[in-house]
Structures are given as structure tokens and as C-alpha cells.
Amino acid sequence: MIKSMTGFGRCENLQGSRKFTVEMKAVNHRYFDVNIKMPKKLSFFESAIRGMLKNYIQRGKVDVFITYEDFTEENFSLKYNENIAGEYVRYYKQMAKTFGLENDIRTSTLGRCPEVFTMEESTADEKEIWAVLEAALEGASRQLVEARLKEGDALKADLFEKLDGMLADVASVEERFPQIMASYREKLTEKVKELLGDTQIEEGRIAAEVVLFADKICTDEETVRLRSHIENMKSCLMEGGSVGRKLDFIAQEMNREANTILSKANDLETSNTAINLKTEIEKVREQIQNIE
Questions:
Q1: Domain end (from 103, 121, 139)
Q2: In this predicted structure, what is the pLDDT of residue 177?
Q3: Does 285 lie in the same domain as 154?
Q4: Is there a single domain that holds both residue 207 and residue 169?
Q5: 271 or 7: which leads in pLDDT
Q6: Is the model's pLDDT at 213 over the cut of 60?
Q7: Which residues are in the Endoribonuclease YicC-like N-terminal domain (predicted)?
Q8: Rg (Cα) of the chain, in Å, rounded?
Q9: Does residue 39 contact residue 68 with C-beta atoms inside 8 Å?
Q10: Is 262 contained in some domain?
Q11: pLDDT tens for residues 141-153?
């Protein structure tokens, strides 16, 4: 199936006392580019997140937003630093002796001194946290892929319509060529009659001129190649997968053939058809930029 490079996905996952919310949005980009915004304490998961996303996304610029809530009541614990407390006591005694003051230090006073008591966050189990985060990431990724597939179907239908129109233009160029040759032969014959009067016209000479003219304006090779490129692009769209770059290359080759047809055109109708082909090819190329 064909996937667009734009989409949005969101998933919340609450397991026990941990809750993750993951949102991700993707836009067009030539390569796979991920920007992750999450709490600093989860930064060690960045490599794992990038690796997991590659299972769902091959191309595109993806912004990932992760929020984390921990409702664990015993997540923090109080720590007593005896060494720091001892330093305070020593200096209080030294101050009392130096300045002749009463040493009235109490445990409640000492407890309010900086760093004597500290709150420390309990070390969390990385495997447990990753299990919750991974489930949220996968849910958001699947939603993103679904959105990309839905838009990809619309792109595919639009491209097929444009490609079928281009095939009709190619057929028009091919059908017009014999008419151009017949018209040229007729005009050439009339011109020679006008110049020679009643003198007998040499058919062989007329035929030779027609052959030279045909060689200059013949677009058989270009139309055959262009038709082949169009059919090849349709086949790639049917196969699906990550074909954006391949389609872009085919579109470049299609444009090359259309340019040659236009340069060889010696007829207004053919020129207009070639211009229309170039216009449609450009539209196709624009749409292809949205395909993964």
C-alpha cells in the first residue's frame, strides 16, 4: 500500500502508577528525521525510541512529544546526612567558643540546616518504565501509519487519474503524426506545382523530402519510452511500499521525454499536447513528494 508522509498519532497508556502520553506528527522530508521532546530523566530511552519508530516509518520528518506522570506514593524517600549534621555541630561549637556565646543548638534547629535532610527519588525499574512507554509509542505509531495509509490511498487514486490522462495525451501525439505527414506532403506537392507549373513532378524527390521531414519530427521513440515510464509508475503504485524516491526518478525521466516531444513538435496541436503533458508531469512530481 502507498503511504503519505504526513499524519498524526496519539496514544495514552496507564499501567499501575505510571502514565505516558505520546503524540507524534509527521510531514514531508527527503530522509527519516526524528525530533523527540520528553522529560530529561527519560533521555536514556532516546536510542530505543528511534529504533522502534523505524519499524513504522521509513521517510519523513517526525516530531514526537512524550509526557510522563508517576503516581507512585513511595517514589521519594527522606535521607539523613550525618556527616553534614556533624559539620554543623562542630562549627556551632566553634562559634560559641570564639564569641563567648551560649551553644543553644537543638535537633530541630539542626534539622532545618541545608542538606541535613534531603528528598531523593527512588530508582525506577527501567524495564517496567520502558514497557509502559513502548506500548504508548506503538499505539501512536499505528495511528500515525493509519492516517498515512488513508491519505496514501487518496494520493494513489489522484495519481492514477493523472497517469491515465497522460496516456491519452501520448496516444493523441501518436495519432497526430500520420496526419502531420499527410498534410506536409500535400503542402509540399502544391508548393512544387506552384513553382514548376505544368512541369512533371518527380515523386521520388517529394518522397525523399517527406522522409527527411519525418526524421526530424518523429517522436516514436519518445512516446514509446514515455508510455513505458507511465506504466512503470502505475506498477510501482500498485506494488506499494516505500517507493517515493523511485517514483520521483521515473517522473524525471517522463519529463525528459515530454521535453523532447515538445522540441520536435512542428504542429500546434502536438505542441499543445506536449505542454499539457509537461504540466501533468509536474503535478505528478508534486504529489510524489508526499509519498513515503
A1: 121
A2: 76
A3: yes
A4: yes
A5: 7
A6: no
A7: 2-156
A8: 38
A9: yes
A10: yes
A11: 999 999 999 999 9
Q: Looking at the structure, do residues 155 and 265 belong to the same domain, yes or no?
A: yes
Is residue 55 located within the same domain as residue 108?
A: no
Judge if 161 and 272 occupy the same domain. yes
Which residues, listed in sequence order, are joined to residue 64 by a DSSP beta bridge?
24, 36
Q: Are residues 285 and 254 in the same domain?
A: yes
Name the DSSP letter for residue 8: E
Residue 267, sorted as left (phi over 0), alpha (psi -120 to 50) or beta, turns out to be beta
Both 219 and 258 in a single domain?
A: yes
For helices 126-196 and 220-239, angle between their N-to-C axes, nearest 10 degrees: 160
Given a cut of 80, whether residue 44 has pLDDT beyond it is yes
**Hey, what's the torsion of the CAs at 284, 282, 220, 233, to 10 degrees?**
-20
Which of 99-113, 150-164, 277-291 is the least confident region?
99-113
Q: Would you say residue 96 lies in a domain?
A: yes
Cell of 266: 512542428
Beta strand pairing call for 60-70 and 18-27: antiparallel
Question: Would you say how long the chain is, in residues?
Answer: 292
Fill in the amino acid letter for 154: A
- Count of alpha carbons within 13 Å of 87, Cβ hemisphere only? 8
User: Collapsing DSSP states into helix, strand and coil, what is residue 117?
Assistant: strand
DSSP string across 56-101:
T-SSEEEEEEEEEEE--TTSEEEEE-HHHHHHHHHHHHHHHHHHT-
Whole-angstrom distance, CA of residue 127 vs CA of residue 133: 10
Q: What's the rounded Cα separation, in Å, for the pair 291 and 164?
A: 19
* Domain contains 2: no
Check whether residue 196 and residue 260 sit in a common domain: yes
- What domain range includes position 22? 7-73+128-149
Q: Are 68 and 42 in contact (CB under 8 A)?
A: yes
Domain count, the chain: 3
Distance between CA atoms of residues 106 and 149, nearest Å: 70
Residue 29 included in any domain: yes
